[in-house]
């Protein structure tokens, strides 16, 4: 009776849910079904951190006292680096390229100049830097920026050749302007070109050197407002650098020469050097070389000076990589770089330009890397880079993100990954060591896995908003290296480049089992081991997965799933390759007309494979060509370590593989999963004939050449679903109108070359899009739970497959696993993306798993291994032993909607339409601290969360519109409110949708600015102090201030105040460090005010003395005079 009533309630709930239009709101009966703990106030979306190399860098700066590095990019981004783990990302709103960066050294501020002719002042004294002031130039283009050490006056050079001066504190222009026509000789009629360099003489702040592009250099006297000297060279200038004594400077030129000038010798350069030019014997000028783009001249107290330059190579060095040249005394070292050099900076012991520089390292910013060279050691070794800047070493093709992993996993991966590190690095500590780590309380382990175009898989420790590479796996080692045989390549490979690219990854953190699907329709299954082994023969299974709909309404036995009766290698076979179809092109795999059959896309290596500790190959599964048609790429993949099964699917069907027994258990076309209950009218695949098993003479095989080429190329659309048949990084569904906007350059491996899909097959093709292993009710009305596999398709159908597993231990390896399709669970709009299960209390039911054991253990360890191999009992809800009404709930999410289905009655009790106009790209059922929810990312940029089981909308934020395929391919949600995606080809952006994490983020972030005493200025020495010759200072305030220089032209630049004033810069930081900083600033201000008070008191005393003296003089003068004499 009780059972009957509950059924009735569930049926009523189903009708109620389906009748409501949006069905996001649940009725009172539904709310009474289960108490939901998550509310909308538990959710908030914000960016946390950005990792990786700054994409398309354009400029760089270094603070030698704070020891922090800033990098600007062509998209207006700003990345700041301190000690490992202290990173920060900022963005200029305009998105214009950053052309120059200048630190206010040891002041916690940074000036950035952009290509849109704006200058910005950033406050670095807070954990999230912000703009204090901006200045937008209207009439002139900015070409160069210079800020002298401990000065508040910023020099800005322009394309017109003029120099403007900006007060950094108020961000206002001074009336003092150096016009180009005043700087050059009056007799010169030609324009000198844009300003390419500005710097003051290290020994005399009143003398400014100005470099013009045409080759003219001017030494300008700021006080007298005229040029002291002019230096002319007939080659264009790229950069200028001073000797620290201020008597010489060096210029780099477009013909590959360096010219050294004495400041008082204007006629000719003191010395001309062509570092890479061949010196002719007859004394003529050396052959011109490529331009030297930058030169730095650094002195040492005890040895020869360093001249460091980029560029300048000879033109005959074709194909040579970009170089940095280090000239020290008589030795010249040419250091080759992997990528073009964007900029470089020499790190020196002192921030003072008028002291011996004592260089110790060079930071080289490349287009795709950051290299730091140790100048103090022989051979100039590089420092080991501790930042996670190698994400893009090979283009990222897919990502997975796991939060709250087993605690022993990161140490295990680190221990095997530490053996992979390169040798030969500098033994010194990383020199960019500023800032302090955050004090975050978030302590659960997080791991990010990235798959790459060259077949590598990288594991990253992502705990506590940091990122560090743990372990790198090279999957391409399993295959033979392709020869340059173009004919063979075209016949077997289905991709033009990157045949080893990773497409999908499935990982079980508890058992450490890993399965990767490659773009060449291959699967590799890995086990984790701490011991090194040599595998004599790589175990191989070849699967013939083809799609066929015959003229009959229901497929005949063996007709639709593709030759299931083909021999498949057994576990007992010593060499599986020999028992299966041929693994290399041969006459037996070709018909007389050259149609390929039973040929895999890649050839597995036949030689022994040495496998280091870490992930080791257990089994390779390859899809083969079928009667001249290439295998379709794998669109979905799942792994279950408890069952010992792998399942994968594509647009033809699915296959279940037992990786313990090394056998194919099931090989079905999608249609065969439905049996006789197929709801879709599918057209037969005419004009092709029924395929024959391979190995015959091939006369009955259909000839591919009879079809027009257009049928083999491109994509087809079905219900707003795009299928990329031959080359796709992941099966993605995108509306047709979005296609032109996508950036396919990042996905070069995913362009379609050929396809077996013809126009007549469009209605029939149904791809497998998702899987889920679980212990649940296989059929409607079942009374006990059993191991099952749920299958989701591109037409929105969810199908169940029952699994009958032998007992654990010896029997599991001997008896077969029985796999039986069990019918349809339900249908949704759009492709199925995610499935999950809850018990009758709403608790998430994870798939069963096996705990990790050492697979290569011997002796006593092997006994422990055998114990560990006993399958872990699944933590089942009480519904197994109770009556039927206490059921489970299946959560199913598609591109358009989500449903919660009660089991075993299979009644839909909740339904929610996620989006009508767009579609969901990624959906995950995630566990939060106090409950579960569905998290979705839509193509229109919305991130949403829905409650479970009620599917109430809890969060909906328009966050990020889909601009290219990379975001869609790499977006991942994980537990505890974390998510990530690749925001550029080189950078990972992490976000959180948890209110708790957003509140704690400020504590977790590191601090860039720390109070550090500025080093003492160099001692002038007794004789220099007595006779002069030391550094002379300049009162810039008096010279550039409004009293002396007047006001600047109004229309020249527009001042834009930031969200905070200068007071905000002093008070915005938080924490103990900031309190110290504020105390220091307060002391400085108090000292300054006291100093001003002293000066005023002294002035008043002097004034009183002067007044008294004048009064006394007047009294003496008038003392003896009579009244009529006045």
Report on this model:
The protein has a five-stranded antiparallel beta sheet with strand order 6-7-8-9-61. A five-stranded mixed beta sheet has the order 33-34-35-39-37. The chain has a four-stranded antiparallel beta sheet with strand order 1-60-59-58. It has 16 helices and 61 strands. The protein is elongated. It starts with a helix and ends in an 8-residue tail after the last helix. The model is unreliable at 1-31, 551-588, 686-763, 871-884 and 1061-1074 (pLDDT under 50). It is mainly beta. 13% of the residues lie in helices and 35% in strands. A hairpin with a 6-residue loop joins strand 10 (142-146) and strand 11 (153-158). Residues 551-599, 676-701, 862-881 are annotated as: Disordered. Pfam families: Lgl_C, LLGL, WD40. This is Syntaxin-binding protein 5-like. Belongs to the WD repeat L(2)GL family. Residues 573-592 have a biased composition (Low complexity).
**Count of DSSP strands:** 61
Coarse shape: elongated
Task: Please report the distance between the alpha carbons of the first and last residues.
Answer: 132 Å
What does the average pLDDT come to? 80
Blueprint (SSEs and pairs):
Layout: H1 2-19, H2 28-33, E1 43-52, E2 57-63, E3 68-73, E4 77-81, E5 87-91, E6 98-104, E7 109-114, E8 118-123, E9 130-137, E10 142-146, E11 153-158, E12 163-167, E13 172-178, H3 180-183, E14 195-201, E15 204-212, E16 216-221, E17 226-232, E18 237-242, E19 248-253, E20 258-262, E21 271-273, E22 292-298, E23 306-311, E24 323-328, E25 331-336, E26 341-348, E27 359-366, E28 370-374, E29 396-403, H4 409-417, E30 446-452, E31 456-461, E32 468-474, H5 486-492, E33 502-508, E34 513-518, E35 522-529, E36 533-535, E37 540-543, H6 576-579, E38 609-611, E39 614-623, E40 636-640, E41 645-649, E42 653-658, E43 663-669, H7 670-674, E44 716-718, E45 721-723, E46 768-776, E47 786-793, E48 797-804, H8 810-814, E49 818-827, E50 832-838, H9 860-868, E51 888-894, E52 897-903, E53 907-913, E54 920-928, E55 931-938, E56 942-947, E57 953-958, H10 965-970, E58 972-974, E59 978-984, E60 987-994, H11 995-1004, H12 1022-1027, H13 1036-1040, H14 1042-1045, E61 1053-1057, H15 1062-1067, H16 1071-1118
